[in-house]
Amino acid sequence: MTTTTRRRVGVAGAIVGAASAGVAAAALAKRLAVGRIRLRPDLEAGEPFGELRGREHTLTTSDGTALHVEVDGPEDAPLTIVFCHGYCLNLESWHYQRRDLRGTHRMVLWDQRSHGRSQRGTADDSTIDRLGDDLAEVVKEFVPGPCVLVGHSMGGMTIMALADRHPELFGDRIRGVALIATSAGKLAELTLGLPALVSKAVHKVAPTTVSMLGKRGSLVDRTRHAGSDIAFLVTRHMGFGDSRNVSPTLVDFAETMIRATPTEVVADFYPALMNHDKLSALHVIDPVPTAIVVGDKDWLTPPEHSRAIAAALPRARLTEVPGTSHLIQLERPGPVNDALRELIKRVEL
Questions:
Q1: Most exposed residue of 7, 65, 156, 239, measured as fewest CB within 10 angstroms of its CB?
Q2: Where does the record place the AB hydrolase-1 domain (predicted)?
Q3: Which pTM does this prediction carry?
Q4: Are 109 and 255 in contact (CB under 8 A)?
């Protein structure tokens, strides 16, 4: 090997070594950052996340998909509260609301198809309209009398799809609605907190990127599980408005739900979310008492989306919670529970 060749090899080796050291240093810094966060005082460390249980049922829908359903609270309560969770979450995301209401109200909580313990649906059936039909079947099977529907994010869209496809249920069977951190449409126009040109570029490549990731779902899922520290930091920053003070145990709980959702499911539902447009169906909801709740730092379904819903529902009561992001029912359960209890009182009058 000539002197020149040895020099080149040496330089290349140094570059590779420096790059490897940089990656290792970044990984170490990440672990130290997460470690410091986890060592902070954690008021929620003893909270039994994921441990609340009700009476478990399985509902087989009209297209043969098995949905996991839990009924909680007193069976003889005159009013049932039906909870519809969001994208990449499951029924456990209603932990604080379930804990608050289970002593006084009958509740129905269900995992939307392909989420939680419900059966995977097909890509063709991963639509908001199909979720609305699923909700109609849940109400028919598990709600013996009047009920209030509560939906977060995609769950709110599910309620709007129900209004569009089954308007006859509203007024008699469905007496009230809570729409939490959700949207009636135009999610494809979100800036995601980015500059306009960057946001436009992101939206342009996102569908292809998500589809590609979905086709390699198994490989991506293995990577997601390996990168749990990164996922912790991303969930902490994006899901919670007050990320510096949020409980590490709560972040872990939320991140575990998100990570448990297969990448293929994320990809299957992504087009449905981007194409969601149910503003014209909101008039069906208008006659019943309605609560709208959103965090003012919600980057996924920003406050202007809730304001647009409120404009279409003039009798609805809108609550904007300061310093709070998309996982509002977990981050700030107090204001959310207050809004639900106030809604229930209006329904029970």
A1: 7
A2: 80-333
A3: 0.83
A4: no
Counting as low any pLDDT under 50, the low residues of the chain are: 3-33, 192, 194-203
What sign results for the dihedral spanned by CA atoms 232, 236, 238, 240?
positive
Residue type, 8: R
CB 71 within 8 A of CB 142: yes
**Count of domains for the chain:** 2
Q: Which of 225, 240, 267 is the last residue of a domain?
A: 267
Of the residues 237, 267, 297, the one at which a domain ends:
267
Whether 94 and 168 share a structural domain: yes
* Count of Cβ atoms closer than 10 Å to residue 17 Cβ: 10
CATH number at residue 68: 3.40.50.1820
Q: Which among 96, 152, 158, 84 has a CA at the least distance from the CA of 295?
A: 152
Domain extent at residue 227: 191-267
Rounded distance, CA 268 to CA 251, Å? Answer: 25
Helix 154-165 to helix 263-275 angle, to the nearest 10 degrees? 50
> Tell me, what's the pLDDT at 220?
54
